[in-house]
Design brief:
This protein is an alpha/beta fold. The chain has ten helices and five strands. It has helices at residues 14-27, 37-43, 63-72, 88-96, 109-141, 145-155, 160-167, 171-184, 190-203, 205-209; strands spanning 6-10, 30-34, 50-55, 79-83, 101-104. The radius of gyration is 26 Å and the shape is elongated. The two termini are 40 Å apart.
């Protein structure tokens, strides 16, 4: 699959399409243009990185509708709107819906150049963050409920003795779970585990919240067998841009 960022253009003005193509060539990006919104969606692949340069007033599926559809399918492609006649209310609506930039025609060459560069950078950062989130979620998915409870306490910088007391298990049991965590999370030290746990809590808190055990203070009920609860050794339940533009658009 082509991983080169691509500037996608839905714009009826041939002169502007030519200008964007020049930018793509100078910056080393791919370039694709479409006459209508439907043509764009027919070829759209959310896995491809880049940005979308989009005229609001186009035949058929209009620019705002294209933006709406992208949002509905969870696409994160930054959208740069171009228009010669949009009202302030339309511009505000587009920005509230997540438009990356809004340029009114005629615009300065540098403005489009700068907006495209920034949009590509933002898209790459979003994709990197999304990939990292998926990777961490996959690692979390390998852990048992008991291991998750230990990981959560590691995020609080608890010692193995404090964890054993809070979870109502032996220190040896904590050491076993910690060893399993290091193996599954591919780290070779407790300090590495703590950094991983603290990172998740600070940057991806919902990952732990969605799977963490709910009985840390011994408030659970039942015998705990098959429920994922800790059953302690005592038998009691416990909780768990560049300086200047290089190109010029032809102007009338």
């Amino acid at each position: 699959m082509n991983t080169l960022p691509t500037i996608f253009v839905v714009e009826p003005d041939a002169a502007i399409c030519h200008s964007v193509r020049n930018i793509a060539g100078i910056l080393g990006f791919g370039y694709e243009s479409y006459a209508t919104g439907q043509e764009f969606f027919d070829a759209f692949d959310g896995q491809r990185s880049g940005c979308l340069v989009l005229e609001i007033c186009i035949p058929g599926v209009g620019g705002l509708k294209i933006q709406q559809r992208l949002a509905e399918i969870g696409a994160t492609l930054p959208v740069i709107f171009l228009t010669a006649s949009a009202s302030v209310s339309i511009a505000v609506h587009a920005m509230r819906m997540g438009a990356f930039h809004f340029l009114e025609k005629p615009f300065h060459d540098y403005d489009l150049w700068s907006a495209i560069q920034e949009a590509i950078q933002v898209d790459q950062e979003r994709r990197k963050a999304g990939s990292m989130h998926e990777s961490i979620a996959a690692q979390i998915g390998l852990l048992t409920e008991k291991e998750l409870a230990v990981l959560e306490l590691l995020a609080d910088c608890k010692t193995k003795f404090a964890m054993a007391e809070e979870l109502g298990v032996s220190v040896r049991t904590i050491e076993h779970h910690r060893t399993q965590l290091m193996r599954k999370l591919k780290t070779n030290s407790t300090a590495g585990l703590m950094r991983f746990a603290v990172t998740i809590r600070s940057s991806h808190p919902k990952l732990l919240e969605s799977v963490k055990p709910s009985n840390h203070n011994g408030n659970g009920s039942g015998n705990g067998h098959g429920s994922g609860e800790f059953v302690p050794h005592n038998g009691h339940h416990a909780q768990q841009p560049p300086q200047s533009p290089i190109w010029r658009r032809n102007s009338k």
